Amino acid sequence: MSRYIVGVTGGIGSGKTTVTNAFMEHGIDVVDADVIARDVVAPGSTALAQIREHFGADILLGDGSLNRAELRQRIFADSAQKEWLNQLLHPLIRQRIEAQLKAATSPYCILSAPLLLENNLNRLCDRVLVVDVSEDTQVERTTRRDNTSEEQVRAIMHAQLERQARFSAADDIITNDCSLTFTHKQVASLHQQYLRLANRKTN
């Protein structure tokens, strides 16, 4: 792809959405892997029908949508089931990501993905931006936002890439456990940098 692409990632509760929304305020297109992952299993989708056939009818909620909590529990306890699900969904998600990146019209665009590095989506990117907060902040934000226990949040954090490994892969880092004003300042500075880099790539 000739367009300049910045991959944005970070651990659970790091505030990736806050950061990508700030880039959107600068007129930058954001492709969100989480949104795409929800879309590919929307009611009526082929993928959801395959999931129902594989896991049984109780994997759906009363309204016909995916019971995410139930699915998470099933795959968390069984690596073979997780692998089956990944084989089904990852190609579909990647296909849509690539199509949306291609359709983007801003000077550069952002690919936001919590598993950017784990799923090798960084290969689609020219640069990697990591949104970072302390582990205590991750726990505090996520338990409040998702109404889950600290134990569950720490289990998810443990399953994600280690903080230091993310740092090693990062070209840029935004510290996001200070004020919103400070976060927006960091975004504004990086926005100018990315405009220059994008301009250099396309000229």
Describe the protein's architecture and organization.
It contains 9 helices and 5 strands, in the order E-H-E-H-H-H-H-E-E-H-H-H-E-H. By secondary structure, the chain is an alpha/beta fold. The protein has one domain: P-loop containing nucleotide triphosphate hydrolases (Rossmann fold), CATH 3.40.50.300. The longest helix is centred in the middle third of the chain and has 25 residues, at 79-103.
Blueprint (SSEs and pairs):
Elements: E1 4-9, H1 16-25, E2 29-32, H2 33-39, H3 46-55, H4 68-76, H5 79-103, E3 108-112, E4 127-132, H6 135-146, H7 150-159, H8 163-169, E5 172-175, H9 180-202
Q: Could you tell me how far the N terminus lies from the C terminus, measured between alpha carbons in angstroms?
A: 15 Å
CATH architecture assignment name: 3-Layer(aba) Sandwich
Contiguous runs where pLDDT drops below 50 for at least 5 residues = none
Shape by Cα distribution: globular
CATH topology: Rossmann fold
CATH superfamily: P-loop containing nucleotide triphosphate hydrolases
Helical proportion? 55-70%
Percent range for β-strand residues = 5-15%
- At the first level of CATH, the class is Alpha Beta
Number of helices, counting only DSSP H or I runs of 4 residues or more: 9
Rg computed from alpha carbons, rounded to a whole number of angstroms:
18 Å
Largest sheet entry: 5 strands, parallel
Total count of strands: 5
In round numbers, the mean pLDDT is: 91
Question: How would you sum up this structure in a few lines?
Answer:
By secondary structure, the chain is α/β, with parallel strands linked by helices. It contains 9 helices and 5 strands.
